[in-house]
Amino acid sequence: EAVQALARDGIRVVMATGDHEAAALAVARAAGIHEVHAGLSPSDKMALLRRLRAEGHQVAYVGDGINDAPALAAADLGIAIGAGTDVAKEAGGVVLVRSDFRGVALALRTGRRTVDKVRGNLTWALGYNAVLLPIAAGALVPVFGLAVYNVLPITGALAMGISSTTVVLNSLSLRFLSLPR
Question: Which DSSP letter does residue 133 get?
Answer without folding.
Answer: H
